[in-house]
Amino acid sequence: MKSISIKSPATIANLVCGFDILGLALAEPYDLMHLEIRDEPGLQIIHEDEHQLPTEPEKNVAGAALLALMEEMPVKKGFLLRVNKMIKPGSGLGSSAASAAGAVYAANQLLGNIYSNDDLIRFAMFGEKLASGVKHADNITPCLLGGVTLIRSILPLDVVRLDAPEIHISVVHPQIEVRTSDARQILKTEVSLKQAIRQWGNIAGLVAGLMKGDHQLISRSLEDVIIEPARSILIPGFDEVKKRSLEAGALGGGISGSGPSIFMLSEKRSTAERVTKEMEAVFHRMGIDNKTYVTQLNHQGISLNENEHAIL
Question: CA separation (Å) from 225 to 188, 215, 260, 265?
Answer without folding.
Answer: 12, 21, 18, 19
